[in-house]
Amino acid sequence: MKKLFVTGLVATSLLMTGAVMAAPKYADVKIPKNIQAIVAYNAGGSSDALARVMLPFWEKKVEELTGKKPNAIVVNLPGAGGEIGWTSLSYAKKDGSTIGVINLPAVALVQAARVAKYAPWLEKFAPIGVNIIDPNVVRLQKDAKYATLKDALDAAKAKPGSVTVGADGPLSDDHMAVYALAVKYGAEFTFVPYSGGAPANKAFQSGEVDIAVGNVFDHLKTKGSAKDVMVLRPSRYTSMDAMKGVKTAKESIGMDVGDLGSTRGWAAPAGIPAKLLTVYREAFAMAVNDPEYKKAALKRNITIVDPLVGDDFGGFMKDQQALVGDLLDLFVKGGYIKK
Amino acid sequence: MWEQIADAAIVIIQPGSLLLAFLGAAMGTVFGAMPGVSATLSIALLVPVTFEMTATSGLIFLGAVYCGAIYGGSISGILINVPGTPAAVATMIDGYEMTKKGKGGLALGTDICSSFVGGQFSVIVLLFLAPLVAMVALEIRSAEFFWIVIFAMSTIGAIGAGSAIKGLMAGIFGLIIGTAGMHPMTGTLRYAFDQPPLYEGVPVIVALVGLFSISQVLYLAEGKGMDTQLKIPEVGRMWPGRATLWKLRGVLARSSIIGTVVGLIPGAGADIASFIARSEAKRYSKNPSEYGKGSIEGVCSAEAANNAVVGGSLIPMLTLGIPGNAVTAALLGGLLIHGLIPGPSLFTDAPDILYPFILSLFLANLFFAVFGFGALRYVAKVVLVPQGIIAAVVTALAVIGAYSFRNLTFDIWIMFSLGVVGYIMRKADFPLAPIILGIILGPMAEENLDRVMTLAHAKELTTIEFFMGRWQTVLLMVLTFAAIGYSFYRDYRYRKELEAKIANGEDVGK
User: Fold this and answer.
1) C-alpha triplet B177, B171, B137: angle, nearest 5°
2) CA atoms within 13 A on the CB side of B216
3) Domain extent at residue A268
4) Which residues between 436 and 465 in chain B have a beta carbon less than 8 angstroms from any beta carbon of chain A?
5) Is there a domain that residue A175 lies in?
6) Chain A residues lying within 8 Å of B145, measured CB to CB
7) pLDDT tens digits for chain A (339 residues)?
8) Per the domain annotation, does A335 fall within a domain?
9) How many domains does chain A have?
């Protein structure tokens, strides 16, 4: 009876991923007993939270697929803007005993800024999947002399450098969003970096900068200080009720700027056995579609979206690399990257 | 705010929180009582213990260690005339005299009661003043922040009792170390020598462990060992009695206020507070001739003041992210590893962590008092632990601490190198605390100044014009220059007095 129930449960979750299979499907695949999950940031951060919330579900799904439950542990390797952790991941044994969280666009930006030991990252990391994107939100200070974001952008177009934009940075997803917006609109901002989201928000609230660019939670924290807000996505961000009323760039300034934000995806060192990678990907897809996981993630303020699995995530990685390439000139001109 | 306090009260009366506060207070007391293990070192060594805890638990534990260590330092001072921490030197003067007269119990009891009162007073001030300061600080912009940092730096010369020039030189050494790694505004690498572990600079916690622990270990290792004949004297009854305490009420109140205020000022710490409080108590005393010969007021004033520094010193650290002394710099490291960035937004972002932390300090003060009265007999034994054993234990904890911060062996080498440098500097009478402050404050000043320049450029103003544009900035500039001017004046006056004394043929000592 119990077995039947488990099988039923597995079947249901598999149905939700769009593939009907019998369990355990990959009984012949040898799964490492211990798997370490590298997080390139400190314990307690958002990447760490993702790993700790996700792994128990993923372990369970690997067990459903192969009949063996691995023991996955988080290893925090912070430092050098993530370079230390990602380098360890790229040089790890290719036997499936190591996976990790790769943060985009940070991985691509760090590689562009200096000779990262994990370069070229697109060839070093095998994509597993991603279902987190924390979209960029652009906010206009309530005391700024511009009535709307559109006015501010027009001013930055008419008189380059006259509008100040504060954000976490340099070389963060927010920094990249500032440049992407500037290029698309033909404007030029004075970019003012702050060492983290919290100091940038504080500066925005105090009225030090005209515009601030951050992520969803930065907006929710500073709602009272903004008079105009837009999210840099092709469509409104509806996963979270508080964000449903926020206009898209298209609605706000009449121009789509693309899908910008901070992404935390899972990857393995390139070259791990294909079968193992398949298992990891499928287990990821099952885990992120588990309603229990979604509940747990929302509780920890993890901004989830529809997942991209395997090669779909690989495509996304390539897009991010291309975007960094497009904006490289601006980073160089700003003095943030040396040619 | 009352709601947050009520919520926090529920958190801290959980058995887990109570246990952590008790363990922290007890370990702090024991560490502090060991000669050579200062409050800074205790926290630096125990920060790694909190890596696996939640932020709230970790802070409750570290806060309790801070309170306990400041109190514990006085135990060895009173019993064997060796201060456990620099903060206990002022206590020791009268405390040991009392022990010699057979009133050791009374000294220890007064010590506990005064520490308790001073500590609790300062936590009350912290609880109500910090949120106000944080609210004001939310309006602070980069220009003002830059001047606050400069103000904090200008007091560096005054840290410790030694020469101001050596203090400043140590501060500059800290500033130089602080420039390593990515430039805070542009990300350009400086002094990184192609070593990724150095890209984000020298981690404060690693530098702290190295400078304070390894230099101390080397210092202990060169010692000829402690006098093995040393015995713990019989202390007798400890409770000073209500009547005695009532008589000390004036001293307690004055010293608690002095300690809290001194704690608020960046650059001054528990050692300075206890000396100021003691000399103020002497000035107001009915029998000042008793001081130095076993005055109970001397013990009371110094201890109330050094424990009152705890709450005061946490205010600039929590609301502005500016540590005023080495102990709070160590605590700052403890906050950072839990992803908490001290600053005014901390009070709105993480009240669920901050308020339990502040309230837990009340418990910590209570627990070290209980622990002190209950277990002093046993704690007294640790003051006789041979220095070789202390050195070995500290080395082991230091290596674990430096490594576990980022799981990098590279950090162990940073720690050892800085430890050796710290040892050499100590031998040459350089204070170490300014180095840590330089490492922390340097990048802050640079980052904010750079930002001001960028903002000024966007508005087509010069940096000076930009500074003059807000009265808040101008006020802070005036205050900073006034503080620098005053310290020059004080230095000048002190030298004049010294010259006068020498001219009169008086002995001025070192």
Assistant:
1) 95
2) 31
3) 2-132+262-321
4) 447, 451, 454-455, 457-458
5) yes
6) none
7) 455 555 555 555 555 554 444 557 888 888 899 999 999 987 767 788 889 999 999 999 999 999 888 999 998 888 778 888 999 999 999 999 999 999 999 999 999 888 888 989 999 999 999 988 889 999 999 999 999 999 999 999 999 999 999 998 788 899 999 999 999 999 999 999 998 888 888 899 999 999 999 998 889 888 899 999 999 999 998 877 888 899 999 999 999 998 899 999 999 999 999 999 999 999 999 999 999 998 888 887 788 778 899 999 999 999 999 999 999 999 988 888 887
8) no
9) 2
